[in-house]
Amino acid sequence: MSDAPKHPADPANELASDNSAIDPRDFRNALGTFATGVTIVTAMAADGRPYGVTCNSFASVSLNPPLVLWSLGMFSQGLTIFQNASHFTVNVLGASQQALASQFAKSSEDKFAGVSWTPGLGNAPVLTDSVANFQCRAANRYYGGDHIIFLGAVESYAYNRQEPLLFARGGFGRFLAGDGNKPS
């Protein structure tokens, strides 16, 4: 008998909520205690229209090579756009951009109405006044439960010293600097 882990034939159903003892709502509440930054991930659709979505599932993967990841729900309206885009931009929002985060979190015909941006690599929109942006070549995609995980190879980035927008426990917040001690 082998000690090798057994992998299900369909990874998307591996931890489906009806097969887990974990309550999804309570699990979400627990995850909400972890404060994250707020981003808008953008790409250019095949028809030449810009597309973006508010996202807080952004993370650094590697410094060398420079890689980042983010995830999008399997049934998201813009999934096909991101799956087909050669590039995407992760725009990190500042504390003053809460309204922008809310605008891109809702379904809308034109989320970019009134939004200032410039075309980046692969024409993926780079939002004006974001705290940072990471212009990425779409390197890979992975299935993770009810989400698709996008891996991006960072080809260009920029940042400033503005205060970032944070999200925790279902609401927006701000970073309060402490005494400057870094975690060990």
Tally of DSSP helical segments? 3
Strand content: 35-45%
Portion of residues in helices?
10-25%
Examine the secondary-structure arrangement and name the CATH architecture: Roll
What is the CATH C-level name?
Answer: Mainly Beta
- What is the gyration radius calculated from CA atoms? 18 Å
Give the N-to-C terminal Cα separation: 42 Å
Shape assignment: globular
Q: Structural class of the helices, strands and pairings? A: mainly beta
Structurally, how many domains make up the residues? 1
Strand order of the largest sheet: 3-2-6-9-10-5-4
Q: Give start-end ranges of low-pLDDT stretches.
A: 5-9
Return the string of H and E elements.
HEEEEEHEHEEEEEE
Family: Belongs to the non-flavoprotein flavin reductase family.
Organism: Bradyrhizobium jicamae
Region (Disordered): 1-20
Protein name: Nitrilotriacetate monooxygenase
Report on the structure:
The strands form three sheets. The protein has a seven-stranded antiparallel sheet with strand order 3-2-6-9-10-5-4. Strands 1-11-12 form a three-stranded antiparallel sheet, with no helix packed on it. It is 12% helix and 39% strand. It is built from three helices and twelve strands. The radius of gyration is 18 Å and the shape is globular. 24% of the residues are buried. GO terms for molecular function: FMN binding; monooxygenase activity; riboflavin reductase (NADPH) activity. This is Nitrilotriacetate monooxygenase. Keywords: Monooxygenase, Oxidoreductase.
